[in-house]
Amino acid sequence: MAISHQRNSPIREKLLAYGQQWIDDDDIAAVVEVLRGDYITQGPKIHEFEQKIASYVGAKYAVAFCNGTAALHGACYTAGIEAGDEVITSPLTFLASSNCVLYQGGTPVFADINPNTYNIDPDEIAGKITELTKAIIAVDFAGQPAEMDRIQMLAKEHNLIVIEDAAHSLGASFGKRKVGTLADMTMFSFHPVKHITTGEGGMIVTNREDLYKKLLLFRSHGVTKDPDRMVKDDGPWYYEMHELGYNYRMTDLQAALGISQMTKLENFVQRRREIAAQYNEAFSKLEGLVVPFQHPEAESSWHLYMLRWLPERFTVDRRQIFQALQAENIGVHVHYIPVYLQPYYQRLGYEGGLCPKAEEYYESAITLPLFPKMSLQDVEDVINGVLKIHSRFKIAL
Ligand SMILES: Cc1ncc(COP(=O)(O)O)c(C=O)c1O
User: Fold this and answer.
1) Residue 366 host element (H or E)
2) SS3 state of residue 309
3) Is 94 in the pocket of ligand 1 (CB under 6 A)?
4) 168 CA to middle of ligand 1, Å?
5) What spacing in Å lies between the alpha carbon of 339 and ligand 1's midpoint?
């Protein structure tokens, strides 16, 4: 693609976000209908939304939460994680994937990534399993499912619970199976940059009834009115608290938005795949750039598109490349700073150098804009912006 812009005028006049929701009139009407009705907190829309997600992914049960982080907390609680337990997870993720272990008093153990897929490497997991290990939290980085077949084998061998952090991967599959049936519990997030949105929102799907029941209790103060579970019956008003739960409930307003958004999910995912394919085509042959690699069994739903800029192939460092793309009004981002490098984790005793492949990845990665509402022109602008900055800073060989 030709670069037609002058060196000093930005490719775009206005900043293009790196990710954004797509809300249409149907979505707005669905929320307004709830506002005009009788229930705005826990009404019928919650269960309907749960059913929609469960049947889409092919899982038996689903529990909606007020956000994905609360859902992950619920999964850790339900997995029985407590002080003294170790939970193995990826360093290359959002903070919530390991913070949920800390909430339960457990210890996150970081296993390094596969340098090609950027997902947690099952061989690295195997090396970190001890007699204290209770669970594995696999993260489907950028929308590409982790190697769940090998992770499940390890879990079976060592009697571990598997939680899949699928905040990035609604609509993705591994082998012939959709994300949502590959782990004991799978978490989705409905934050606005994700595949569908409810504003804030999250969900756990599972095929296990025991986990489902515990998740329901945890979401709402540990309270039950189930006659089969209650110790006694004081009257029709009576309820019992059986566990220390929280108020992590989603509202009917959010669920109505989620139900409406679900009708568009397949199109959203398809559009993400098309944009990623265009980026791959434009960048894969450019020297010094590395486009995301796909595991042959994985079909990504492309939450993020990361481009690596190999430091030895450019005259400037990643910070300057990032700033140059920003100056073109391309809304770039970096996903992620390895979690254990955060000051809080450092205070807990985690040290730099723990996962060298994740750190090397972090040093060179830049996330490009990717969301279904991008116009053809937006996509072209990103491509032209990258080509412009690449040709400005590449080291000629
Ligand atoms: C990988 C990952 N896990 C967990 C979360 C937490 O989800 P939420 O923002 O819905 O709490 C996010 C959100 O960005 C995420 O990217």
Assistant:
1) strand 365-368
2) strand
3) yes
4) 8
5) 13
